[in-house]
Amino acid sequence: MWSSERRPLSIRLRLLLFLFAGLGIVMLGLFLLLDRGLDRQIYGRLDEGLKARAHAIAVLLESRPTQEALAELQAMSPEYAGGGHTDFLQLWDASGHTLLTSGSNRDAKLTPPDAVPANAPYYYDLVLPDGHHGRAIAVRVTLQGRSGDAILAVAEEREQVDALERQVHVALVSGVMLTSLMAVVLAFLAVRGGLRPLLAFGGAARDGAESADLQADTLPRELRPLAHALNDAFGGLRRALQRERRFARDVAHELRTPLAEIRTAVELARRDAQASPALEGALDSTERMSRCIDGLLSLSRYESGMQEAQLEPVDLSASVQRSLQLAASSAQRRRVRMHLDAPPECWTQTDPALLERVIDNLLLNAADYTPEGSEVLVRLRCAGTHVDVRIGNPAPDLEPGDLQRFGERFWRKSPAREASRHGGLGLALAQSLAEVLGLRLDFRLDGGWLWAELGGLNRLDVPD
């Protein structure tokens, strides 16, 4: 099941997203600025050339009679006479009648779309008489011998300028994309290289939690205060764990002899006297205390590393059957039926004593905590390369939140329930022993049943 809570992003992903987004915005802004500036420069030069040409023609028209000015214009600029299609010219009087047109503009198609202002040139785009796209300028001029202002329009093809602008645009886009790609690669390498000391520090901190202190002098300056703080915290935790384990071990050792004496005295009293509920209760209490002390000693030895697993081939089917026989007395007392579903043989490589103790604790816990008159199911799967053990029993009182506390020392769902027979260390010991064996011990609720799942064992092929 997927979690409904949104997981936070990693620092590396946050930095990469921030850098990529920032670089993308910067590159986009740079592209827009450069593109706009280049377009303004390219088309500004075209407009300046048209303006200079229109001004020269206007000065000529205003200083000469119309026909004489036209003849002189055709002599000075033969491109307006006709036959070409690069330059175009047209002149209107105040009434809108065409007074003068170039040979390249015989159809007189340079009319501006809007009114031409009196004191400023008017630029506009149009389709030229030859069908090409062009750029034109319209200005007001004063002709000799005529009343009112005439309008002079000078046009030029812009397709070459448009082609140049497209080439510049493609080159600009390619340069920006290449620069962005290089920036992304450099950002990725910079983030990875910058976080490498932090990742190494995380690994060293994980190892230093149970071993030596972190070497703060070899770390970057930014991580040294954190390393010193972690060293102090790890040192305090190690000292606290050592005190707790030493205390549990010492208490357990000190209590074993008095408890053995108490148990012997109770058994002698039972032999010499008639059956008494008080003596039976005292004997149950001593057995419970014995299991509690044995559990404390085992937890202390395995958690401190004083005792390690000894691996050898084990027939898991036979081991589970022996554990069922051990739990049979507790199950019969509570009228609990225990069913085993397992193959005749199932071999694996593990420590037989530790694994039997894990299964013993799980079976005893299931037999003692399942409702009276119910059943306990034990399923052993030995297929392929993996071996799995599942132990299930009805658990109507448990809730999903209780599973998080499984494995805590001395925890019970109901402290008063079965207090005379349980010390609260069975699941904690099973969890610790499973970790020593490198196995996974998980608990889950399914339809009112509690399932303990032991995984991580590998199947071992043993010749007949």
From TrEMBL:
GO molecular function, one term: phosphorelay sensor kinase activity
Gene3D superfamilies named among the record's database cross-references: 1.10.287.130, Histidine kinase-like ATPase, C-terminal domain
Keyword annotations: Kinase, Membrane, Phosphoprotein, Transferase, Transmembrane, Transmembrane helix, Two-component regulatory system
GO annotation, cellular component aspect: plasma membrane
Enzyme Commission number(s) of this protein: 2.7.13.3
Keyword rRNA processing: no
Reaction it catalyzes: ATP + protein L-histidine = ADP + protein N-phospho-L-histidine
Membrane topology value: Multi-pass membrane protein
Subcellular locations according to the entry: Membrane
Ranges for domain Histidine kinase: 250-464
One Pfam family hit: HisKA
Domain HAMP: 192-242
Transmembrane segments: 15-34, 168-191
Name used for this protein in its record: histidine kinase
Organism field: Oleiagrimonas citrea
